[in-house]
Design goal:
2% strand, mainly alpha, 62% helix, globular, 214 residues, two-stranded antiparallel ribbon
Length: 214
């Protein structure tokens, strides 16, 4: 008899669903998390970084791009990310693995998956916008309401780096949030070739299409 005839298919499907939920806890609940972040929070993040307007990027399109980036981070948020967040809440430090050398500040946290070291860097680069995070970087990262500012800081920094060297548009900024790395050469620049080959870029574009009902 088949699995279906034995009535085991529903049991197995339920077990697989539970395993997926443990591995990727936000899948199936991404919309709920995103609704907890008001639309005004995204547009406020846009207005606080003049780099967006200077690059000719509209408020609506940047807000949608930032939302797509966070949706993508939530989709790929896994058990290890959850353990880091839990450890930071309980001990003030991310998980310490004996087989993985990683400084505490390098761990990416929360729904934006920006690192504590990254936030500290942005506090220096954008003191007016990010100064409120000084001394409470991890706590800010673990607060979903702060995610738009975290993502906006990353993109504004990348705009400054790209200006005069590479095109600044939805595609290159989507790629820039998690650019590909090529061995000792470091991060690959946002050329047409690298963007086209980037899995991260494709994933963010898929989330952006969902947001725009496409």
């Amino acid at each position: 008899p088949s699995i279906e005839q034995l009535g085991l298919d529903q049991i197995l499907n339920g077990m697989n669903s539970q395993q997926r939920q443990v591995k990727h806890p936000f899948r199936g609940h991404i919309g709920e998390v995103m609704k907890a972040i008001s639309e005004e929070t995204w547009t406020d993040a846009y207005s606080r970084f003049p780099q967006f307007k200077e690059a000719g990027l509209s408020e609506r399109r940047v807000a949608e791009l930032m939302q797509a980036i966070v949706r993508n981070e939530l989709f790929f948020y896994d058990m290890a990310d959850g353990l880091d967040d839990k450890s930071v809440r309980e001990t003030g430090k991310p998980m310490q693995y004996p087989f993985k050398e990683r400084k505490a500040g390098e761990a990416t946290l929360g729904v934006s998956q920006v690192s504590v070291d990254g936030v500290r860097k942005f506090e220096i680069e954008f003191p007016e916008q990010m100064g409120r995070c000084v001394g409470r970087e991890a706590k800010a990262l673990l607060n979903p309401i702060e995610a738009p500012m975290m993502v906006a800081a990353v993109l504004a920094h990348n705009i400054k780096c790209y200006r005069g060297h590479y095109p600044i548009n939805e595609g290159t900024l989507a790629y820039s949030f998690n650019p590909d790395v090529s061995g000792e050469k470091g991060k690959r620049p946002p050329t047409d070739e690298t963007v086209k080959e980037s899995e991260h870029y494709a994933n963010v574009m898929s989330q952006l299409a969902i947001i725009r009902g496409q």
